[in-house]
From TrEMBL:
Compartmental location: Mitochondrion membrane
Record bears the keyword Protein transport: no
Primary site of residence: mitochondrion
Coiled coil spans: none
MF terms in GO: L-ornithine transmembrane transporter activity
Organism: Punica granatum (Pomegranate)
Record lineage: Eukaryota, Viridiplantae, Streptophyta, Embryophyta, Tracheophyta
Protein name: Uncharacterized protein
One term under GO cellular component: mitochondrial membrane
InterPro entries: MCP_dom_sf (IPR023395), MCP_transmembrane (IPR018108), Mitochondrial_Carrier (IPR050567)
GO biological process: mitochondrial L-ornithine transmembrane transport
A Pfam family this chain is assigned to: Mito_carr
Membrane topology (UniProt): Multi-pass membrane protein
Family: Belongs to the mitochondrial carrier (TC 2.A.29) family.
Length: 298
């Protein structure tokens, strides 16, 4: 139970660090992903990431960049504790003998297993977050008008979905693309993280690496997550913010094909820049805090 407690504590603190550093980038990513395709001859609502930041600050102030943070903040402890605890238990199952470091391939398997577990917590959390982040991008208000607000906050989103969108089933809208993101994404992230650490350490014993090396490995691992699964995240976002009564998409495959046919491959990478800009510092902070916490707990 000592190892489980360490994983719980380190995952919780690491997730908090990741959220604080990365949420503004995530907000811009979701806004770019969820903005409607412009009519022929019309410009999109946001010309790019910088324009989305400027418009968000002008319309909503700095708080707009942290919109939707309540939902992941409320569950960040559970999410990251679950992620790192399941990964830790998977490591214990895969380890040939106590104290032996895992191979990169074993870390890939451990990451995939952790991804399955966290998907069921991530899906409703991300649905609430995406609804709050995207509502200004989806608003039909004209230039200069106040931002249309549909939801007052995370609990308001949850109440609306439970009451009007099929109850608990509504909160798990987008579960398939969430699984399709979390399983391969975490496999890539933990595998690359371990590979970079072992490369810098010159072998499987990475216990002597300093904070700088851990930051680099964590940042590259986070980048590997998004580079490997980004189109799936776009599909997840558009499905989760889709109108319940008049849906634009019938499911994940339909969303993928419609985005591809109307916007091309570029449409599947909307918001990729902010996602990658977020992933490096956010995951670097997360892994560093996780490693420091585990070391301090002995």
């Amino acid at each position: 139970m000592g190892d489980v407690a360490k994983d719980l504590a380190s995952g919780t603190l690491g997730g908090a660090a990741q959220l604080i550093v990365g949420h503004p980038f995530d907000t811009i990513k979701v806004k770019l992903q969820s903005q409607p395709a412009p009519l022929p001859g019309q410009p999109p609502k946001y010309a790019g990431a910088i324009d989305a930041v400027k418009q968000t600050l002008a319309a909503e102030g700095p708080r707009g960049l942290y919109k939707g943070m309540g939902a992941p903040l409320a569950t960040v402890a559970a999410f990251n504790a679950l992620l790192f605890t399941v990964r830790g238990q998977m490591e214990a199952l895969l380890r040939s003998e106590p104290g032996v470091s895992l191979t990169v391939n074993q870390q890939v398997v451990a990451g995939a297993g952790a991804g399955v577990a966290v998907s069921f917590l991530a899906c409703p959390t991300e649905l609430i977050k995406c609804r709050l982040q995207a509502q200004s991008a989806l608003a039909t208000a004209g230039p200069g008008a106040a931002v249309a607000v549909k939801y007052a906050g995370p609990m308001d989103v949850a109440r609306h979905v439970l009451r009007s969108e099929g109850g608990m089933r509504g909160l798990f809208k987008g579960l398939v693309p969430t699984l399709s993101r979390e399983v391969p994404g975490n496999a890539a992230m933990f595998g690359v993280y371990e590979a970079v650490k072992q490369y810098m350490a010159g072998g499987r014993d990475t216990s002597g690496l300093g904070m700088g090396s851990l930051l680099v490995a964590g940042g590259i691992g986070g980048a590997a997550f998004w580079a490997s699964v980004y189109p799936t995240d776009v599909v997840k976002s558009v499905i989760q913010v889709d109108d319940y009564k008049n849906p634009k998409y019938k499911g994940s495959i339909d969303a993928f094909t419609k985005i591809l046919s109307s916007e091309g491959v570029k449409g599947l990478y909307k918001g990729f820049g902010p996602a990658m800009a977020r992933s490096v510092p956010a995951n670097a902070a997360c892994f560093l805090v996780v490693e420091i916490t585990k070391a301090s707990l002995g």
